[in-house]
């Protein structure tokens, strides 16, 4: 698939999250030299009935010839992983300087990751949060899970302040079985609180990936005229000359992102900075790389 079809603004104009997720994943997999279905442990474990949409490469053709039953092979690597996608839906995720806000970007990425995980016969669940957990879909590996996740993502609206640290602790207490935690958030919270919450997951022996979603304007501060700036999660407003703020702002945002990245590195947590202009395939690749290390 051409790179333009993985471009977030272009895909957002399509408006159909299911179609976009499938386009992104199928196009991404087509462009990969190494199949995501191989390269991990592939010890044969069990069967399950074929469901429309399953990868035909996993079909047990010998069983079909013997019994006229359509069965999909399950492998050990495909039954061990339980993934939980945690998506930040707080008010700050509504910010955008271009066509795509952070919540839309994160939602489409969550949909694509869900489809990819289910294509691999992994169990995947979704947790939506702001100051607290709004809703939780426990992980399942059945193809119908994709629709359940899409329904939750289609109806999500930004609102509420951010309390990433507290939510991570709540989620870590709730998610008992070891698995993969994928956090999608702008991480607008105190770095120490975020680090503490992430450490809680690591203490419980989860693998963790952080996808730090930010708008391009937040990263590069492109303003050059007198501008009114508003707190996305409060009532504060200020009118200022961006030229007098740019250097200090860029230093602070770099310190902030570097600190988050360093905290993740120290805890052996995968970290990706995800500008809302970045094609989704980069983060699907990051997921597959992380998955291969887990195996």
Description:
It is a single chain. The protein has 295 residues and is of the alpha/beta class. It has two domains: 3-33 and 81-294, 3-Layer(aba) Sandwich (Rossmann fold); 44-76, no CATH class. The chain is 44% helix and 21% strand. Helix 8 (191-203) links the parallel strand 6 (180-185) and strand 7. Helix 2 (17-31) crosses helix 5, helix 5 runs antiparallel to helix 6 (144-154) and helix 7 (164-174) packs parallel to helix 8 (191-203). The two termini are 28 Å apart.
How would you summarize the topology of this molecule?
Layout: H1 8-14, H2 17-31, E1 44-49, H3 61-67, E2 71-75, H4 76-80, E3 82-88, H5 102-119, E4 123-129, E5 133-140, H6 144-154, H7 164-174, E6 180-185, H8 191-203, E7 207-214, H9 216-220, E8 227-230, E9 237-240, H10 242-266, E10 270-275, H11 281-294
Helix pairs in contact: 2-5, 5-6, 7-8, 8-10
What does this entry show, briefly?
The chain is an alpha/beta fold and 295 residues long. The protein has helices spanning 8-14, 17-31, 61-67, 76-80, 102-119, 144-154, 164-174, 191-203, 216-220, 242-266, 281-294; strands at residues 44-49, 71-75, 82-88, 123-129, 133-140, 180-185, 207-214, 227-230, 237-240, 270-275. The strands form three sheets. A six-stranded mixed β-sheet has the order 5-4-3-6-7-10, with helices on both faces. Strands 1-2 form a two-stranded antiparallel sheet.
